[in-house]
């Protein structure tokens, strides 16, 4: 049976089973999490939570967590709704979008389509240009073009934005996004990676939520704090919308360990600054070293903690050869607009980045890629 290309990164368990090794031996460049997390404070909180928070049900209103998150944004807690990862919240945003025409910049994160399909809704692709050396201004214009809205009627569209974009890593400037709030019936902005980007917070739309009832901002703690397994994200939107979502969902979608872990880290600015310093150092290092590997390999600029690569030839043999060595990179065959000539690589720690570059250099040497 041929293996389907993965829809998400991070299939570490599967590769470890295949190589018959411990998952910790796999170097994972496919899921873009901060590579030195989670913070110690999170581990400590979880140990305490095992004593105090496993037996009782979580507080169904998540009041304390909502207060802590709201405080980090200077908002009232009624504007915040914690979720079982950002992924759960996409499902409710999609329910709100089901009577609208959803516009999805492509190539893009597949989970929005999954969320829309839950309600029998489909998205309309909005192709992004795949050459963006000319800066963000020119490619953001595609979303505001009248052609995009043609045949939809006034504000009959729901626009799904990922900032920075996945898989390209392009950063949407806040001033380029703001006008879109006047053009679409609903704007869902997924800021899962934004808190990792040095200077990224200035492009967040969170502070606009009180002014725009049609705005939903979804954030994730997964990437910044390397806690994908705990499942914790949150939405910032108008209280009436969030109240509606609360009535639709399960009574306790976020478990108590995630709540306690979230409380321990959510306001940790020292951690965030450490992450910014790491990304500002390692992002350019990785690009510089990947760029030198071979002339047919192109590395695209990006603001997030991953980089997109393309090649004149299929990159599947390279990806498979790395996997044989226990190195996982993100196969892009599940993005229909990209296919097998593209890879997405997370930025790791220096010693791991070095190992990746060395392994890639060895595969690329003596191969057709040099052509
Ligand atoms: C753009 C983007 N948003 C959201 C998520 C999922 O976040 P969470 O783990 O909080 O569900 C991912 C996961 O890969 C992602 O790439």
Automatic annotation (TrEMBL):
Report the Pfam families cross-referenced here. Aminotran_1_2
Cited SUPFAM superfamilies: PLP-dependent transferases (SSF53383)
- Top-level taxon in the UniProt lineage: Bacteria
Query: What InterPro entries is this protein classified in?
Result: Aminotransferase_I/II_large (IPR004839), CobD (IPR005860), NHTrfase_class1_PyrdxlP-BS (IPR004838), PyrdxlP-dep_Trfase (IPR015424), PyrdxlP-dep_Trfase_major (IPR015421), PyrdxlP-dep_Trfase_small (IPR015422)
Q: Which co-factors does it depend on?
A: pyridoxal 5'-phosphate
Question: What are the alphabetically sorted keywords of the record?
Answer: Aminotransferase, Cobalamin biosynthesis, Lyase, Pyridoxal phosphate, Transferase
The GO annotation for biological process reads:
cobalamin biosynthetic process
Q: In which pathway does it act?
A: Cofactor biosynthesis; adenosylcobalamin biosynthesis
Q: Which Gene3D superfamilies match?
A: Aspartate Aminotransferase, domain 1, Type I PLP-dependent aspartate aminotransferase-like (Major domain)
Reaction catalysed by this enzyme = O-phospho-L-threonine + H(+) = (R)-1-aminopropan-2-yl phosphate + CO2
Q: Which CDD domains match?
A: AAT_like
Please name the GO terms that the record assigns under molecular function: pyridoxal phosphate binding; threonine-phosphate decarboxylase activity; transaminase activity
All copies of domain Aminotransferase class I/classII large, residue ranges? 26-359
Q: Which Enzyme Commission numbers does its entry carry? A: 4.1.1.81
Purpose: Decarboxylates L-threonine-O-3-phosphate to yield (R)-1-amino-2-propanol O-2-phosphate, the precursor for the linkage between the nucleotide loop and the corrin ring in cobalamin.
Q: Which PANTHER family match?
A: HISTIDINOL-PHOSPHATE AMINOTRANSFERASE-RELATED, THREONINE-PHOSPHATE DECARBOXYLASE
Query: Under what name is this protein listed?
Result: threonine-phosphate decarboxylase
């Amino acid at each position: 049976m041929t293996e389907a290309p993965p829809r998400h990164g991070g299939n570490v368990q599967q590769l470890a089973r295949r190589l018959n090794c411990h998952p910790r031996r796999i170097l994972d460049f496919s899921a873009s999490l901060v590579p030195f997390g989670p913070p110690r404070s999170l581990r400590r909180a979880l140990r305490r939570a095992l004593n105090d928070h496993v037996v009782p049900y979580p507080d169904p209103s998540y009041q304390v967590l909502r207060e802590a998150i709201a405080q980090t944004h200077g908002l009232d807690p009624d504007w915040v709704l914690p979720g079982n990862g950002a992924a759960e919240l996409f499902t409710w945003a999609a329910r709100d979008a089901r009577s609208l025409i959803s516009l999805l910049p492509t190539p893009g994160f597949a989970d929005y389509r999954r969320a829309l399909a839950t309600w029998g809704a489909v998205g309309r692709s909005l192709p992004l240009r795949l050459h963006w050396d000319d800066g963000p201004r020119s490619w953001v214009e595609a979303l505001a073009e009248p052609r995009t809205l043609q045949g939809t009627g006034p504000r009959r569209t729901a626009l799904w934005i990922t900032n920075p974009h996945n898989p390209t890593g392009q950063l949407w400037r806040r001033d380029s996004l703001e006008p879109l709030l006047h053009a679409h019936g609903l704007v869902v902005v997924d800021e899962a990676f934004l808190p990792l980007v040095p200077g990224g917070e200035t492009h967040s739309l969170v502070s606009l939520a009180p002014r725009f009832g049609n705005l939903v901002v979804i954030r994730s703690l997964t990437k910044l704090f390397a806690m994908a397994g705990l499942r914790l994200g949150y939405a910032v939107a108008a209280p009436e919308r969030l109240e509606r979502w609360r009535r639709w969902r399960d009574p306790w979608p976020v478990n108590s360990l995630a709540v306690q872990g979230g409380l321990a880290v959510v306001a940790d600015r020292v951690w965030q600054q450490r992450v910014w310093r790491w990304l500002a150092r390692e992002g350019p290092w990785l690009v510089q070293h990947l760029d030198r590997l071979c002339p047919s390999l192109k590395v695209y600029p990006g603001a997030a903690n991953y980089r997109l690569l393309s090649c004149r030839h299929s990159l599947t043999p390279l990806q498979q050869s790395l996997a044989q060595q226990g190195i996982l990179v993100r196969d892009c065959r599940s993005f229909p607009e990209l296919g097998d000539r593209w890879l997405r690589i997370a930025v790791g720690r220096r010693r791991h980045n070095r190992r990746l570059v060395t392994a890639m250099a060895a595969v690329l040497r003596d191969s057709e890629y040099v052509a």
